[in-house]
Structure formats: structure tokens, C-alpha cells
Amino acid sequence: MIRICICDDEQLHSSKLEKIIMDSAGLYQNIEFDIDIYESGKSLLKALNARSEEYQILFLDIEMGILNGIEVAREIRKIDKNMIIIYVTSYDNYTMESFEVSPFRYILKPIQDEHISKVLLHAIDEVRRNNQYLFFKTQNLNYQIKSETILSISSEKGRIIHVVTVADEFSFYGTIKEIEEMLDPLSFIKVNQGTILNLNYVHIVSGTDIILSNKENFAISRGQKKVVKDAYNNFIKRRIGF
User: Fold this and answer.
1) What is the 3-state secondary structure (H, E, C) of 199-218?
2) Is the N or the C terminus of the chain less surrounded, counting Cβ atoms within 10 Å?
3) What is the rounded CA–CA span in Å between residue 110 and residue 18?
């Protein structure tokens, strides 16, 4: 079951979008959609803050009344870092301002059936990737951590792997090659011989370094410069729907 939310203060747009999504359901095997509609950002935030509702995908109008879509997304990111936010807008001049909330795609009104179906397909793939886990063992304990929570993975002395997540740190025996094979290549990039980073947490990319959102700095090896640059550019393009 994929839980989808539509937040738009124009009922006509919400109803049309809901119909397109439901008509697309037949394209996805073994997946059902559960869709809720909110007519304001305030009512959506009330449900989310009360923890009475949780959604994996949100179609969010930018031009709304008291709270616009960017303001709503800022509040959502305080309580849910992983919800896939797809902006629906009549204008294309919000791109830079909205980057801070990591939108997944932009859809320009008037909405088109084929475009919605395509974006939805990519969003569902992202939901699946977000549910991937990294499995490892330390001493006598077995761990599984969500790949989406990983910021960085580094190798120390060849056989010791150090994993930094948003909430914790782990060390265990293994190799970078073994770990790399478990990760989604669209979200993770090897920046040097001993370091893998999650592109979702990249803050700045320069010619020789990458800075993550936790302010940690990593060197890009000479041989990986073009690979890293291309991977990051493609990641950003996917984010904004190009």
C-alpha cells in the first residue's frame, strides 16, 4: 500500500489529480494507492503533527492561501525527512527557493496525465529505495539500518567499515566493495577509494571536496572527480524533474 496525499486549495485540481493517480494504478503490479486530499497546508500539518496520518508521497500546490507550499514543506521537513514531495505549480520561478526542502519533482499546471504517471512511477521507485536496508554484524549482534539514514561510509585500515547515520555511528569488519554492492547507485557515490557518500545529504560539491549537511568534509580523488560531478548533476536533475 502506497499512501499518497494531495494538498491543493482548488478542489477541481485535486479531483483531477486524484483521478489520474487512480487511473494509473493498473500500471503498477501488486501496489494499491490510498489517497487523502487536504484543501489547505494548515489542515495537512495538523494531521501530520498529531501523528494521525503518515504519507509516503505528497503532491503539494505551491500557490495556496495563508501558508504556501514552500512554507508547508519546511514544516513537514521538521517532522518527516523522507516524505517524497512533488510540487504542483503554475509557475517555474520557485525552483531555487524550494531546494532547501528537497522536492522530488515539479509538475507544471495544467497537469497532463502522461506526465503525472511518469512522475508517480519514479516516486514509487524512490519509495522502494527508501525501504532498502544495510545489513551487518558487530561482535554477536546483527544490525539492519535504513539506507536512507546513512550519511557516509568509510574504510579504516582496509577491513574496518565506519558508518555514520543521522542518529548514530557503527563500526564493523568488511570491505568498501562489499558495502557498495548493497547500496542504490542512484543515491550513493564512491568519492575516493575508501569513502561512499549519500547524495541526499550532500551540501556543497567543489572541484576537490564534498561537504555534507552535517558539515563533514570529504576529499574527492582525482580519478573520481568526473564520476562524482556527473553523478551529482544527474541526481539534481532527477530531483527537479529533468
Assistant:
1) HHHEEEECCCEEEECCCCEE
2) N
3) 14
The domain spanning residue 169 has which CATH number?
Answer: 2.40.50.1020
**For the whole prediction, is pTM greater than 0.85?**
no
Question: For residue 16, what are the domain limits?
Answer: 2-130
pLDDT score recorded for residue 29: 59
Phi/psi at 237 (nearest 5 deg)?
A: -60, -40
**Average pLDDT value for the chain:** 89
Q: What is the mean pLDDT of residues 135-152?
A: 88
Number of independent structural domains in the chain: 2
Q: Which of 130, 162, 193 is the last residue of a domain?
A: 130
Grid cell 569513502 in the structure block, residue:
195
CATH number of the CATH domain containing 102: 3.40.50.2300
Q: Is residue 241 part of a domain?
A: no
Same domain, 126 and 199: no
- Choose the final residue of a domain: 130, 160, 192: 130
